[in-house]
Design brief:
two-stranded antiparallel sheet, binds 1-O-pyrophosphono-5-O-phosphono-alpha-D-ribofuranose, binds adenine, adenine phosphoribosyltransferase activity, purine salvage, Adenine phosphoribosyltransferase, cytoplasm, PRTase_dom
Amino acid sequence: MSSDQDLAKLIRDVPDFPKQGILFKDITTLLKDKDAFKKSIDLLAERFANDHIDKVVAAESRGFIFGAPLAYLLNAGFVPVRKLGRLPAKAIRAEYTLEYGTNFVEIHVDAIEPGEKVLIVDDLLATGGTVGATIELVKKLEGDIVALAFLVELSFLKGRERLKDYRIETIITY
Ligand SMILES: O=P(O)(O)OC[C@H]1O[C@H](OP(=O)(O)OP(=O)(O)O)[C@H](O)[C@@H]1O
Ligand SMILES: Nc1ncnc2[nH]cnc12
């Protein structure tokens, strides 16, 4: 497993999922390859090795796949942002629109201390709606957002333009 192109080749295109007109980037074909999965995590982790991250925040559910091993490697805590009604203790919520729908996400109010250095992680950046809602939640808890990290970026959906105030790190761009 030598390059980002090798990783990109392992992502499967599924037309018209979950809706007509959406070209779905299916990462399960990359995840099941042990070298590719390891390489993906290692490539992301090395970008933040010197950032002294306190908390990795990731959105349910594909964000968890990358967020948890990154938190482990960066010696940081892991904070789940979950879809509506899943968190058991006191939480705050944000509404968002993504490439194929709208939803709410939530975070526990005690998940982040003011001033903690936060890395937000997800598998894929499309319109930026999901990460935008995650940013809103972290800001309400006064976390210091160091960067946003994604394995995949769909550049034609212009998520990066919407997030221009933030450092964004991605491995594979379409
Ligand atoms: O940039 P956006 O337009 O917001 O799209 C990106 C989001 O869409 C996908 O999540 P999805 O809501 O499909 O949920 P899942 O992780 O549970 O599959 C993906 O994992 C990102 O979180
Ligand atoms: N085209 C796409 N493929 C996979 N996940 C996505 N999340 C939002 N848009 C997506």
